[in-house]
UniProtKB/TrEMBL annotation:
Keywords assigned by UniProt, alphabetized: Membrane, Signal
Domain of life: Bacteria
Residue span, Outer membrane protein assembly factor BamE domain: 39-106
The UniProt record lists the keyword Signal: yes
One Pfam assignment: BamE
Record organism: Marinicauda salina
Region (Disordered): 146-169
Signal peptide: 1-22
One GO term describing the cellular component: outer membrane
Keyword Transferase among record annotations: no
Protein name: Outer membrane protein assembly factor BamE
InterPro entries: BamE-like (IPR037873), BamE_dom (IPR007450)
């Protein structure tokens, strides 16, 4: 090989290696509530109310489903690496509970270590019959004629009970 083609081959190999390494570089993304200075303001139970929490933290990420008097501020940091499933690196949840009069009852903080892994059941309910292929579904009714063309009866919704539109039996 001469020197220009050797240099070109080395340059192409270096470019391919750089692209491959860039694809393996992890990307961190933060989702949810973003803390302005990294810390949550202190709230005094019994003194602070919904208005002071809204002024300090803004709208909550979500509210309690069954307890509407609980506000949750959620943030999570996920790491994305090439084609792999994202991995949650950090999670912080601030739960602010209010009394009936709107004052702060308690402020709790939860982290990633407080979470629980839930195993989802991936079962299917079996149905009667057989599964048709796409071709069978597309061509299944080709050549079949509706039976009411030959019998003279109409197919009424809900069965045959009830008056007929033409006044027949």
């Amino acid at each position: 090989m001469n020197k220009p083609s050797l240099r070109a081959a080395v340059g192409v190999a270096a470019l391919v290696g750089a692209v491959a390494l860039a694809g393996c570089n992890p990307t961190l993304r933060t989702h949810g509530y973003r803390y302005s200075d990294g810390e949550v303001p202190e709230f005094t139970p019994g003194e602070d109310n919904e208005a002071t929490v809204l002024a300090a933290l803004g709208n909550p990420s979500t509210r309690g489903v069954f307890e509407q008097d609980t506000w949750y501020y959620i943030t999570s940091t996920r790491e994305y690496l090439a084609y792999l499933r994202p991995d949650t690196r950090a999670r912080r949840i601030i739960a602010v509970r209010f009394e009936d009069d709107g004052t702060v009852a308690s402020v709790d903080e939860y982290g990633l270590e407080d979470g629980r892994v839930i195993a989802l059941v991936d079962r299917e309910t079996p149905t009667r019959g057989r599964e048709l292929t796409i071709l069978e579904q597309l061509l299944g009714n080709v050549g079949r004629l509706p039976s009411e063309q030959f019998s003279g009866e109409q197919n009424l919704p809900g069965g045959a009970g009830g008056p007929r539109p033409d006044g027949g039996p």
